[in-house]
Backbone:
C-alpha cells in the first residue's frame, strides 16, 4: 500500500479527486516538470493504474487503445509547451471514432504566456475543431498572489490579475474549476469522445502534503434517453415494409453491440441484404462480409441492379471506396443513419438521422414489422456471392507468394477467441477481402484512417485486454510508429506481423505512373529497412519469412506461449503485389 501523499497545489488535488470520483483509472503520463503536481497525485494513489510513456504521440495512441478496449475514459498527462501538440493525431482519431480521452495538459500561469518564456505556447482551445469540450482552468489564488509585480507585464495583464484577486476570490476560482472539470469529463462519459482540460500551475511544483486541502463536488452526468419519435418510427416502418430492395451497410462497430435475435430477423427478410466490413464485428451466414469482392467486378448495369430503395447505415466510417462510389452514383431513394451523435452524409442523400443506438432502434423497430416484402433481391446477390467465393479460392491456390497470399495464410492462422488490430492503408483493404472467424474481435483506427499510431493503439488495447492480441501492419506504418515499442507494458502474448514490401504498396494499386524514380521516391517511398534491430533494442523475439513454406513454418509456433512478445516480418515482392491484387477482381468475375 502506497503512503498517501498529495500535491500541495489545490488545483492539482481537485483534478485528481474528480478523476477518481468519475472512475478514470488508467493514467498515461509523459515526463515533464510543469505536470509534476498531477504526476505526484496520480502515482501516489493505488486507485490509479499509471503508465509512463515518453513519446507523447505514442502515449496518446496507447491511451486510445486502452479506451477502445475498456470503452471508458482514459487520461493523458503532459507538461506545458509542444508536448500536448503531439497528442493531436490521437485526439483527432478519438473525435472521429467516438473514443473517450481526457487530456490533462499542464500550463504556465497567464503572466508567463507570450513573453518569450520557455516551454510556453497558446494552449487554450488548442484542439478547438476536434474536441467535445475545452476546459480552461484558473490558477489558484494562493499561487497567483505570490507573483512579483515586476513579472506582471504588460500593464493590462497586471490590471487583470489585480481585478481577479479583488473580485474572483479563491472560492469562486475553485467553483469555476470544479464546474469546468465536471463538465468536461461528463461529456467524455456521455458522448464518448475527447475532452481537453488545460491546467495552469505556478512554482513551486513539487511540494507535497499529507492531507487534502480541498474536497471537490462530483457532479454526476445527466444522461438523456434518446427515444425514436413515434411519427418517424411509423413512417420508417411503413416505408420499410413497402420497399422490395433494402440495403443495410455497417461500418466500424463494437463486438456484441447488436442482439443476435435482431440479426436473425434481418437475415430472414428476402428484400434485405446486409453488407458488413471487417471492422463491423457482425456475423451471419447470409450477410455479405467482403463488399469489394461483390462490387468490384460489376458492370454499370449490374451496379444499378444493386441500387437499394432504402439504405440503412450504422457504425463508424466505411473502408470500401467501391461501395461509396456505387451509392453516390446510384443513390437510394432514402438513406437512414442510426447514431446517437452524428450522421455523416457519406452518399450525399441522407434523408433521416435517427438519434439513438442501433440496439435501441432495432428493438423498437423490428417488432412493428408485420410482414416482409416478397423479393428476390437477397437471393440474386447471394448467388453472386457464392460464385465470387469459389473464384476467390481458385485464385488463392493459383497465385505465387505475395501480399494477397500472405493475408490468406495469416488470417487463417489467427487464434480463436482473440483480438486482431489492423493497420491502415493496404493492410485493412486486404483484410476486407477475406472472411474472418467470428470469434475474433477486429479493430482499426478508421476515424482519420491515418497510418500514425496504429502500433501504439494495438499495444494499449493489448495491455488492457484479457484476450491475446495480434497486430497486422504494413512496413511504412510500422516504422513510422516505431517508438510504440519503447514501452515497458507490452504483454508477452502480444504479436506483431509486419508485411514488408519495401514501400507504400497502396500507391501501386492506385492509378498513376509507376516504376519511375519520382514514383519510387516520393509516392511509394522505397526503403531497405527491417525490424530486426528494433526488436533487439526493445526486447521482442524476431522471426522472418520470405516464402510460403517459411511463413507456414513460422506460424506453427508463432502464437505459442513465450517469455517475450514476438514480431514476424514477412518480405513480399514489391513489383508483383499490385498486379496480383488488380487481376483478382477480373478473375473472380
Residues:
Amino acid at each position: 500500500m502506497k503512503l498517501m501523499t498529495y500535491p500541495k497545489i489545490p488545483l492539482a488535488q481537485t483534478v485528481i479527486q474528480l478523476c477518481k470520483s468519475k472512475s478514470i483509472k488508467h493514467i498515461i503520463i509523459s515526463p515533464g516538470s510543469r505536470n509534476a503536481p498531477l504526476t505526484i497525485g496520480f502515482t501516489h494513489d493505488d486507485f490509479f493504474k499509471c503508465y509512463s510513456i515518453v513519446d507523447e504521440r505514442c502515449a496518446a495512441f496507447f491511451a486510445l487503445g486502452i479506451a477502445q478496449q475498456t470503452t471508458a475514459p482514459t487520461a493523458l498527462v503532459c507538461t506545458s509547451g509542444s508536448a500536448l501538440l503531439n497528442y493531436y493525431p490521437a485526439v483527432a482519431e478519438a473525435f472521429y471514432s467516438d473514443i473517450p480521452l481526457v487530456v490533462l495538459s499542464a500550463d504556465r500561469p497567464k503572466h508567463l504566456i507570450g513573453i518569450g518564456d520557455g516551454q510556453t505556447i497558446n494552449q487554450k482551445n488548442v484542439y478547438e475543431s476536434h474536441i467535445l469540450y475545452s476546459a480552461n482552468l484558473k490558477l489558484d489564488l494562493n499561487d497567483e498572489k505570490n507573483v512579483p509585480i515586476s513579472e506582471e507585464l504588460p500593464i493590462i495583464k497586471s490590471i487583470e490579475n489585480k481585478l481577479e484577486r479583488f473580485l474572483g476570490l479563491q472560492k469562486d476560482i475553485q467553483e469555476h474549476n470544479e464546474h469546468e472539470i465536471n463538465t468536461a469529463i461528463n461529456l467524455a462519459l456521455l458522448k464518448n469522445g475527447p475532452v481537453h482540460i488545460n491546467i495552469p500551475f505556478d512554482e513551486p511544483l513539487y511540494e507535497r502534503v499529507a492531507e487534502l486541502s480541498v474536497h471537490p463536488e462530483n457532479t454526476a452526468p445527466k444522461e438523456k434517453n434518446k427515444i425514436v419519435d413515434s411519427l418517424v418510427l411509423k413512417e420508417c416502418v411503413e416505408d420499410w415494409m413497402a420497399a422490395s430492395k433494402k440495403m443495410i451497410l455497417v461500418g466500424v462497430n463494437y463486438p456484441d453491440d447488436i442482439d443476435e435475435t435482431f440479426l436473425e430477423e434481418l437475415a430472414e427478410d428476402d428484400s434485405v441484404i446486409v453488407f458488413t466490413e471487417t471492422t463491423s464485428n457482425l456475423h451471419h451466414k447470409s450477410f455479405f462480409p467482403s463488399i469489394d469482392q461483390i462490387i468490384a467486378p460489376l458492370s454499370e448495369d449490374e451496379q444499378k441492379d444493386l441500387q437499394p430503395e432504402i439504405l440503412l447505415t450504422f457504425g463508424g466510417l466505411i473502408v470500401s471506396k467501391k461501395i461509396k462510389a456505387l451509392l453516390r452514383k446510384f443513390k437510394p431513394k432514402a438513406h437512414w443513419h442510426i447514431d446517437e451523435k452524428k450522421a455523416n452524409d457519406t452518399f450525399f442523400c441522407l434523408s433521416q438521422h435517427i438519434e439513438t443506438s442501433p440496439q435501441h432502434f432495432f428493438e423498437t423497430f423490428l417488432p412493428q414489422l408485420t410482414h416482409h416484402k416478397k423479393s428476390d433481391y437477397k437471393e440474386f446477390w447471394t448467388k453472386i456471392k457464392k460464385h465470387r467465393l469459389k473464384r476467390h479460392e481458385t485464385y488463392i491456390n493459383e497465385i505465387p507468394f505475395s501480399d494477397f497470399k500472405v493475408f490468406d495464410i495469416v488470417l487463417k492462422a489467427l487464434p480463436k477467441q482473440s483480438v486482431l488490430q489492423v493497420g491502415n492503408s493496404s493492410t485493412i483493404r486486404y483484410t476486407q477481402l477475406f472472411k474472418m472467424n467470428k470469434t475474433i474481435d477486429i479493430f482499426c483506427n478508421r476515424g482519420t484512417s491515418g497510418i500514425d499510431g496504429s502500433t501504439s493503439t494495438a499495444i494499449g488495447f493489448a495491455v488492457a485486454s484479457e484476450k491475446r492480441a495480434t497486430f497486422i501492419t504494413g512496413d511504412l506504418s510500422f516504422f513510422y510508429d516505431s517508438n510504440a515499442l519503447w514501452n515497458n507494458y507490452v504483454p508477452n502474448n502480444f504479436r506483431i506481423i509486419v508485411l514488408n514490401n519495401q514501400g507504400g504498396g497502396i500507391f501501386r494499386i492506385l492509378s498513376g505512373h509507376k516504376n519511375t524514380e519520382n514514383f519510387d521516391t516520393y509516392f511509394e517511398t522505397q526503403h531497405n529497412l527491417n525490424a530486426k534491430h528494433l526488436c533487439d533494442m526493445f526486447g521482442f523475439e524476431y522471426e522472418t519469412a520470405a516464402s510460403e513454406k517459411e511463413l507456414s513454418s513460422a506460424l506453427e509456433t508463432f502464437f505459442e506461449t513465450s517469455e517475450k512478445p514476438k514480431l514476424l516480418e514477412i518480405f513480399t515482392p514489391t513489383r508483383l503485389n499490385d498486379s496480383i491484387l488488380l487481376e483478382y477482381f477480373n478473375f473472380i468475375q
Summary: The longest helix spans residues 170-191. The CA atoms of residues 58 and 363 lie 40 Å apart. The chain has three domains: 6-209, 230-377, 399-587.
